[in-house]
Structure to design on (227 residues):
């Protein structure tokens, strides 16, 4: 089982009794529920999986499972948070690499997001083929979107001299939303994120960012004359 499923910080907001996350037994049961859901998602659509199915797969009684997740959507969101945390970990590694332009950095970020999403058969349908309609998950989702946009901006600022715009993070948030929307459209229409749609996502996000940031910006620490 993925050791990260035991992380007590993973979506504690979704549990009705938060103190349960402090016990070893509680973390173990919670990890088993998430692991069972992930196994089921590898062979079934999210819509066909019930809370009872996950409890049966995890061999945990439903009354006990409710201490950790109030419903199936909360379990699914726990897995989406795991996906997001993995994406953040991998995206941070890009900051140690060199890129000739911010466009190349953005392309690498898109490729990283795709690799993380395709790293587990449970992720694509859950991320792009299923709509969560749960107040807490929407709020946490907005926080994650903001975090990812900030990470993308941080990486680009670290490497390139960008214009001094007050709404840069909002710009990057919209660019990431464009990428996400094209991936979702591809999955729902084709059942996969096709290579053509990956390139389309890169082109669309780049075109949007270029409305605010010149395509050729000097690397950080260099002047335009030196670049």
């Amino acid at each position: 089982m993925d050791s990260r499923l035991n992380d007590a910080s993973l979506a504690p907001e979704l549990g009705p009794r938060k103190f349960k996350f402090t016990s070893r037994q509680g973390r173990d049961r919670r990890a088993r529920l998430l692991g069972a859901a992930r196994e089921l998602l590898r062979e079934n659509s999210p819509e066909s999986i019930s809370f009872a199915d996950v409890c049966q797969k995890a061999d945990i009684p439903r009354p006990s499972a409710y201490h950790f997740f109030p419903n199936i959507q909360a379990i699914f969101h726990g897995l989406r948070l795991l996906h997001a945390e993995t994406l953040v970990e991998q995206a941070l590694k890009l900051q140690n690499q060199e890129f000739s332009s911010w466009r190349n950095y953005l392309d690498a970020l898109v490729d990283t997001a795709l690799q993380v999403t395709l790293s587990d058969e449970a992720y694509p349908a859950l991320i792009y083929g299923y709509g969560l309609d749960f107040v807490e998950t929407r709020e946490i989702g907005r926080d994650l979107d903001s975090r990812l946009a900030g990470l993308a901006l941080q990486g680009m600022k670290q490497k390139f001299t960008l214009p001094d715009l007050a709404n840069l993070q909002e710009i990057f948030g919209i660019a990431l939303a464009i990428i996400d929307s094209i991936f979702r459209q591809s999955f729902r229409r084709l059942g996969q994120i096709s290579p053509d749609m990956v390139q389309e996502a890169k082109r669309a996000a780049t075109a949007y960012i270029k409305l605010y940031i010149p395509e050729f910006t000097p690397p950080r620490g260099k002047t335009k004359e030196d670049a």
